[in-house]
Amino acid sequence: MSSTTSPLLMVPLDLEIHSRARHLAAQQNTVEKGKRVYLNALAVYAVHSYLKWLQIPTNFQESDCWNPVKAALSNAADLVIPNVGILECCPVLPQETVILLPDNENRIGYVAIQFQESLDSVQLLGFAPAFDEVNLPAQLEVSQLQPIDALLQQITRLEEAIAFLQTDDSVAVQVRSVLDNKPLSEIVAKFELLYRTGDEFEWRYAGGEILAGDTLAVGATREITQQDDSELQDLAEMLLEKLAQIWGNVA
């Protein structure tokens, strides 16, 4: 990330992006669905524009919300940050004080976008980091949001951890061998959530379960033995100790 200075939180929406969003909405089978797709598309564009100002790249065109078929099948307002993860961009209508969180997996966090009566601009209200998917809340009060700078801090944390896992450090090398070419961003996001929300006494065992799950996910057909469990727990504990040195105190 090349900048730590936040611009103004109002993001303009030009006629071209409105036209593209309307075209996408017109392909939906109900007016209500079309409205939701329209707002999702504008919300994703607003966050993309904000990150672009900060020279943080996004795969804006690859977002599911811009695909007519995928948009029809889900309520995704996703924005991909390459090699980091996926943000959910949540529209908030005028006078609303509650943000409905869609049941979408593998998000690194949620950005709330406040719409006004006039749609020529929107306001970025704030950020909420990822929740445990097992206990994902259905909604979030606007008052519970962190400042938008927290989004930049979250991206930085994930980038720092991914950079570490690409080094020749012995722990990083072991983790890469366990994951067998699975994207590092996925394991980093899981460990960041554990580090931020779990008690320290949980790190070893919960971290071992994360590594065991990802080991099986890359195609292992054998069962994880008790010895494997212990080795993965050792590795998870060492990884979290390394990440603790990198991250320090996480809000």
Topology record:
Layout: E1 10-12, H1 15-26, H2 31-53, H3 68-73, E2 78-81, E3 85-92, E4 98-100, E5 107-115, E6 121-129, E7 139-141, H4 149-165, H5 170-179, H6 184-197, H7 203-217, H8 226-247
Parallel strand pairs: 3-5
Antiparallel strand pairs: 1-6, 2-3, 4-7, 5-6
Helix pairs in contact: 1-2, 4-6, 5-8, 6-7, 7-8
Fraction of residues in H or I helices: 40-55%
Order of strands in the sheet with most strands? 1-6-5-3-2
Tell the overall outline: elongated
Low-confidence parts, pLDDT < 50 over ≥5 residues? 1-8, 216-222
Strand content: 15-25%
Total DSSP helices: 8
Kindly provide the radius of gyration, computed on alpha-carbon positions and rounded to a whole number of angstroms.
Answer: 19 Å
Q: Structural class, from secondary structure content?
A: alpha+beta
Chain-averaged pLDDT: 87
Largest sheet: 5 strands, mixed
Helix-strand string: EHHHEEEEEEHHHHH
